[in-house]
Amino acid sequence: MASNSSTTPVLEELDRAECMRLLGERGIGRVAFDDGEGPTVIPVNYAVDGDAVVFRTSASGRLRRSLLTSVAGGEVRAAFEVDRFDESSREGWSVLLRGGAHPLSDEEREAAAHVEPWPGGDREAWFRLSAREVSGRRLHRP
């Protein structure tokens, strides 16, 4: 049986403003980075802070070690993804940020959006991932 084109979901590219709006609706996303052994993706709690996302992680964890740089003021290339899908309706959206991540100084932490991590334990390593490239797609019914 052929699918009815009026009920088939349509894929729409999203502009930067809509991507940033959607990012603000969620609180859990995924940081993608190279941990030295290859591409790695770790879920984190986050907050949108201007054109960036702020997240916290363990001071002794792999994410922190991988995002540190030996260059003062330098950034490590990383990506951040957040999405929301409804499998029953086959509709949803996905947003991807690509840019540079750096640890926040004490002064930057004070001014940054607050992030409340879900897991207990030490989560005192704060990072900002600046959105140099933002893209998104929405799958919806016409």
Question: Could you walk me through the main structural features you see in this protein, from its secondary elements to its overall organization?
Answer:
The chain is elongated, with a radius of gyration of 17 Å. It has helices spanning 16-25, 62-67, 106-111; strands at 10-14, 28-34, 39-48, 52-57, 76-86, 91-103, 125-140. 15% of the residues lie in helices and 48% in strands. The chain has a six-stranded antiparallel barrel with strand order 2-3-4-7-6-5. The chain has 142 residues and is α+β, with helices and mostly antiparallel strands. The protein has one domain: Pnp Oxidase, Chain A (Roll), CATH 2.30.110. Strand 5 (76-86) and strand 6 form a beta hairpin. The mean pLDDT is 86. The protein has three helices and seven strands; from the N terminus they run βαβββαββαβ. 22% of the residues are buried.
Rg, Cα atoms, Å: 17 Å
CATH top level assignment: Mainly Beta
Q: In sequence order, what are the helices and strands, one letter per element?
A: EHEEEHEEHE
CATH homology group: Electron Transport, Fmn-binding Protein, Chain A
| CATH domain topology | Pnp Oxidase, Chain A
Mean pLDDT across the residues is 86
Estimate the strand proportion. Answer: over 45%
Distance between the termini: 21 Å
Helix/strand structural class? alpha+beta
Tally of strands? 7
Q: What number of domains?
A: 1
Helix content class: 10-25%
Number of helical segments with 4 or more residues: 3
What's the story with the biggest beta sheet?
Answer: 6 strands, antiparallel, barrel
Quaternary assembly? single chain
Protein name: Nitroimidazol reductase NimA-like FMN-containing flavoprotein (Pyridoxamine 5'-phosphate oxidase superfamily)
Pfam family, one: Pyridox_ox_2
InterPro entries: Pyridox_Oxase-rel, Split_barrel_FMN-bd
